[in-house]
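Sample 1 of the test manifest.
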Amino acid sequence: MPNQPPIYVEHLCKYYSVHQKEPGLIGSIKSFVRRRYTEVKAVDDVSFTIGAGEIVGFLGPNGAGKTTTLKVLSGLLYPTRGIARVLGFTPSERQPEFLRQITLVMGQKQQLSWDLPAIETFLVNAAIYEIPEAQFKQRLAELSELLDLGPLLKKQVRKLSLGERMKCELAAALLHRPQVLFLDEPTIGLDVTMQTRIRQFVREYNERYGATIILTSHYMADVTALCRRVIVIDHGKLLYDGDLHTLAEKIAPHKLIRVEFAQPLNGQRLEDYGEVISAREQRAALLVPRDATPEVAARMLAQLPIADVTIEEPPIEDVITRVFEQAAHARAERGEEDVDDE
Amino acid sequence: MTSDERRRTKDERAGLAFFGLPGKYAALLRRAMGLMLEYRASIVIWMLTGVMPLVMLAVWYALAESGPIGSYSQNDFVSYYLLLTLVRQLTNVWVIWELDYEIRHGDLSIKLLHPINPIHEYIASHLADKVFRLWILIPLAFLAWWLFPTLHYDFTPLTVTLWLVAMVVAWLLRFLSQYCFGILAFWISQALTLNEMWFAAMLMLGGVVAPLDLFPAPVAAVANYLPFRFMLSFPVEILLGRLSTADLMLGSLTMLGWLVFLVMLYRWLWSKGIRQFSAFGA
């Protein structure tokens, strides 16, 4: 089905009936007599389309519905309502032809056999995915080069460090060269160097093979480095779908001016120039409306004893936090109960 | 048509597709053998835990000192229980622990992402274990043969062939019944306990506590048709030579009937279980 977008989601809903129990002994007895269920809307009327070769970031706090959406798209869960289509397949049917073209990498779960070298699991996957030997050798060589696997393959998996293990897990998940990748927190727990390495790898994989990738992460650095487009999900609802920087400009129409003073201020008030975020000894940071930034900066340089100045975008984390705060505010105004769901 | 309606997935339709998988089994077996080598010390220890038949042998041997019990003399008991020990060792199954764990901890998700039914990996690891056990059991069998010259078995082409078939089916019956209990873990948290009860029934009615023909007639009559007999006792009965040809045929048919039943039960439970898993995930 060449003309269909690889990932198509329409009015997707995934609801769970969760048994509610009050704490304590009375609660246990009550729940024994009459079980109460509340409906948790893990994913609530989400729609989006992702085109071939896109890398899209899913952003959202814990329990927002990101992982649930990925599980629906990879076929582990079936939708309560709505449509999910990946590469033209209905994921929950879990047809082998479908499974052979996708992969889901979950940071905390692993598929490598713990007591054996990674290569042993690779060989099994080669058989399961019916990869001919020559292709297997070639892909292994490519993945080894991209991920710098080298001697890791022959060591027992339990003897590898977390970062090394993650690289091998990624390789195992990509041996069959899937066209669609679902990466759920792929850099969680890794050190900075390894995170960069994984990001570079994902970008290379996307460039080389044109794979369509959905990435969820708590680390904004992952998203900023890889994704031009983000989908923000909170409490199961889609809050924003579009360009990351446009989002920043919409939500946080400010820029951050950091200054370092050559000498202490002589009665000048920083508040005259903008919203003071921090002011310590010789340094300060101010929030200034975007449009006014060049003018304010010029004024500050003229009127204050400035040794160094930088003008930055506000941290993306702050932007996203603000998006969630706005959404929470909107929910409160609508009178919705704030259920702590997972 | 909403997504929740009955759309049967490939799992729900099949669930056991042995044919067309030789290449995949080769790879799975190769890895399973590697793992078994890692665990070889543990396997020896696990083998030592399967000695209840020898305990029962000691009991019956002592009881039969003053004379045969039923149609079993002391020598008959030795012949019976040594063979039963071998059968027990070669048909052992542990899949329920792995399946229960993986379902309740969500590790099954990883397996479900692969385009192959998870059951095959479990079967491969059990097969590798058997290969290793044979290495130990064959020399031990010869040793026992040498130590107990009065052992008496009925080796004919028919009985040996039938024995081999019955051994394979015995293992399949044990594996599939444990697997079915394991699938219950999709719904309940006490699947292991249910399996323990099943195992106790197998010890009683599978010929470990006593040879089945020593049971009172009404009990023995029922026990002859229950699945437990075909998990342990029937292979022993074949080689002991006490069954008439008619009995052998009847037993074989009953055995195959239970196999067909368990295969169907597995397929039905698995399709239901996957549906349940896909509703709630892990």
